[in-house]
Amino acid sequence: MKNYRHAKEKKPTERVSFYIALSICMMAVGFAVWSAYSTLSDTTEPSDNTYFSSLSTENAAVGQEMTGVTVEATEAMTEVPTEEPTEEVTEPARKLVISETKPSEAQSANQNMGADRLQAVLNIESSMVYPVKSQQVTKPYSEDAVYSKTLRDYRAHVGCDFAADEGENVYAMCDGTVSDISVSELYGVIIEVDCGDCYVYYCGLDSQLTVEKGQQLSTGDTIGTVGQIPCENEDEPHVHIEIRSGNRTIDPLSVIESDN
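Above: the chain sequence. Below: its structure as C-alpha cells.
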C-alpha cells in the first residue's frame, strides 16, 4: 500500500521542470507573435508624412523609395489631350426678297429712269472739255456696283476717272463759278463749280489750289493740280469727276464734246 502511494505521487523536481518548460514555450509563442506584429507594422506604416504629401503630385509613386521597396515606372504616363468641341460655322442663309412689282410696272420704272437720265443730259447746254490732257478714262461711270480695290467691296461709281500724274494740271471743263471748296475723307480736296445747268465736282486735287470760292472760271482755266483720292488710292493716279443735274448724276463723257 505504501509503495502504491509513492508510485502515484510525482517528485517535486519533475513538477518544477514541467512549469519551466511551459513558461519557456509561452515566452517563445509570445516572442513569435510580437515579432510578427512588429514586422507587419514596419511594412505598412510609413516613417513620416512625405509619402502622403507626394501623392498630390504627378507620378508620385514612380521611382520613389518607400520602406525599402521601389516602384518603377513600366509605362510612360502621357496625358491624352481632350479635343474641344468645335462649332460648325455656317454662312447665314441669304434672304430671298420677292418683289411685288409686276413686270409691266418694272419695265415702266426702267423707262422712266432712262427718260430722267436722258432729260438730265439734255438739260446741260454747256459745252464741256476734258479736265486733263491725257483724255484717258481709267474707270468709267457706272450706276451698277463695281469692285473697289481700295475699299474691297462693290459699289456704284457715279463719276469718271481720268488718268493724270500727281502734280499735273486740272482744267475747268466749262464756264462757271467756284461755289464751294471742301475736304472729304474719301475723295480728298473737292472743288465744286456751278455751271448754271449743272454742278461739276473735281475730286482728289492737291491742297495747293489756284482758285478760291466765288471765283469766275472760263473753260480751260487751270483750277489746281492732281493730288490723291483716299478711297481710290489703289488705282493709278487720276482725277475723279462727277456731274450732277438736279437730283441725278450723269456720265461726264455724255456731255464732253467728242472733238475735244
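The longest strand covers residues 176-184.
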